[in-house]
Prior knowledge:
- By secondary structure, the protein is mostly helical.
- Helix content is about 60%, strand content about 0%.
- It has six helices and no strands.
- Helix 1 packs across helix 4.
- The radius of gyration is 13 Å and the shape is globular.
- The mean pLDDT is about 85.
Amino acid sequence: MTMNYDVSNLYQFLTQTPEAGLRKMLIDGKPMTEMHFNIMMKVVKHGDEKEFEKFCETGTFPPVRLSSKEQALKENFWNDCLKTFGARGLLQPATPKVAA
């Protein structure tokens, strides 16, 4: 999964916004569900910004414990999340890095 998004700002937003506010903003069932949200928070809380970027860009997960229902969501999880973040205006295109 190739990323052309500013995942760093997304990570900052997810870590600095109260969880109750994130729930109200993100969970709508199309496609972000309560289980999507729970998995996302596990990923966010697992490590730092660089790790979050890596997981988001590669479509992988940290070694966190997931229930059997959460395991079933893993295949489309990142696509569903990116779609929701984009629809809410939370995921912006990355600005090109200028070589010095």
